[in-house]
Amino acid sequence: MLGGTSEARALALDLHGRPGLRVISSLAGRVSRPALPAGQVRVGGFGGADGLAAWAQAEGVRAVVDATHPFAQTISANAADACARTGLPLLRLARPAWTARPGDDWRPAGSLDEAAGLLRRGALWSRVFLTSGRQGLSVFAPIEELWFLIRCVDPPSGPMPARREVLLARGPYAREAERALMQRFGIDVLVTKNSGGPLTEGKLDAARDLGLPVVMVSRPAPAPGVASVADVGGAVGWVLARAPRPGPAPAGSGAG
Question: Quick one: what percent of the chain has pLDDT higher than 70?
Answer without folding.
Answer: 94
